Amino acid sequence: MKLLSLILIFTGLIAKAQTIENFTLTNVIDNKKISLSSYAGSPGVIIIFTSNECPFDRHYADRIQMLATDYGSRIPILLINAHTDSEESVEAMKNQKLTLPYLADKDQTVLNQFNARRSPEAFLVKPTAGKFTIVYRGAIDDNAQSADDVIHAYLKDAVDQLLAGRKIETTETRPVGCNIRRN
């Protein structure tokens, strides 16, 4: 059994939990700085890399708002825009009329720390001993184009399991959406 565990670890089939360093970004809605560390007392934090222009982000807008309605009092939700195209500028972000914190990561420091690839791409992080660990990463659910046809609500399931103190059953899924171009 020990040999099998070692083989799985070395082949990468058992992933080591990724720890996220604290970050501070500006919320374009009110120009206030938001630090991940300020949520150390929460059971977790949902972080979604998003954009102004990606059609997939528009498909998910209502579902993200529903997550905020259902969980916002227990699990904070942060939207991060790391796209650098002109239509993704801070000024364009301010015109989105969002109610959730919408953070600008134009130097892509936080994007690179999470190794996010798509928009939208969701992460659920859990505070542990002063650090944050990714416990889920990937798609919000299994149907980007139709909320009515969702079979697996991956992010919601992970949040429910976290809040219940249970093991997260699905820790990673393949995100769908627009590629985030690196600087």
Commentary on this structure:
26% of the residues lie in helices and 23% in strands. Mean pLDDT is 91; it is low at 3-15. The chain is globular, with a radius of gyration of 16 Å. By secondary structure, the chain is an alpha+beta fold. A hairpin with a 2-residue loop joins β8 (121-128) and β9. It has one domain: Glutaredoxin (3-Layer(aba) Sandwich). The longest helix is centred in the middle third of the chain and has 17 residues, at 55-71. The protein has an eight-stranded mixed beta sheet with strand order 1-9-8-4-5-6-2-3. The chain has helices at residues 2-11, 55-71, 90-94, 109-114, 154-163; strands spanning 19-20, 24-27, 33-35, 45-49, 77-81, 102-104, 118-119, 121-128, 131-138, 178-179.
In short, what is this structure?
The chain contains 5 helices and 10 strands. It is of the alpha+beta class.
Helix content: 25-40%
**What's the helix count?**
5
Distance between the termini: 44 Å
Low-confidence stretches: 3-15
Beta-strand proportion: 15-25%
* Rounded radius of gyration (Å): 16 Å
Morphology:
globular
Q: What is the average of the pLDDT values?
A: 91
In CATH's first tier, which class applies? Alpha Beta
Content-based structural category: alpha+beta
| Total domain units | 1
Widest sheet: strand ordering: 1-9-8-4-5-6-2-3
The CATH topology comes to Glutaredoxin
